[in-house]
Amino acid sequence: MPQQRRAQATRRTILVAAAEEFDRVGYEATTLNGILRRGGVTKGAFYFHFASKEDVARVLVREQRERWPALWRRWVRQGLDPLSTAIGLVDELLAALDEDVATRAGMRLACRREVDAATPPDWEQVLAELLGRAADSGYLLPAVDPRALARVVYAALVGARTIDRGAASTGRTAEVWRVVLRGAATPEWLRTNPMLQPPDERPR
């Protein structure tokens, strides 16, 4: 058992080292030697667990892809209205990308299709589904097209993450939701969600 745990720890070390290199310089520019140096592992240890750099990348893509269904189910099961579900889901997704380099690298590899069979999750479609439910439930203004709103929100959130990587993106993401939903959500829904208001305007 101790030997098995060491092998598992070495495998994880390699995955994290590769993720850090992919995140730092991109997939194409990452070298096997760079992964070995960052992880402090030998070439023999690497090849015991993985056949190639592409093999490591595939595992990172698969791991991040397997993470999202559980995230979706957890938020849907909370029984919140669709707008609140969308906000919570996206905020947790972005926090995971900020905090976990393996998840971040896996998502980047999938979105850029840098390895075979790397299909990115369609988060714009997820938003469109939730915002469509919000429209059907009367939480959006009648003139708002939920699919157009999903495209705008998705583009704004991607832009916020591009501009402010890391923890700082949280504040900009909150601004995106606040500005967009003030023009899209009904006054009734906004009144029941004071956290979307700027701190100095929230009820005390």
| Annotation, overall tally of beta strands | 0
Rounded Rg: 20 Å
Largest sheet: none
Secondary-structure content class? mainly alpha
Proportion of helical residues: over 70%
What is the global morphology? elongated
Q: How many helix segments?
A: 10
Question: What average pLDDT do the residues reach?
Answer: 86
Features:
0% strand; elongated; mainly alpha; 10 helices; single chain; 204 residues
Q: What does this molecule look like?
A:
This protein is mostly helical and 204 residues long. α1 crosses α4 (53-76), α4 runs antiparallel to α5 and α5 packs across α6 (101-111). The protein is 70% helix and 0% strand. The protein has helices spanning 2-25, 32-39, 43-49, 53-76, 82-99, 101-111, 123-136, 146-163, 169-182, 187-191. The longest helix is centred in the N-terminal third of the chain and has 24 residues, at 2-25.
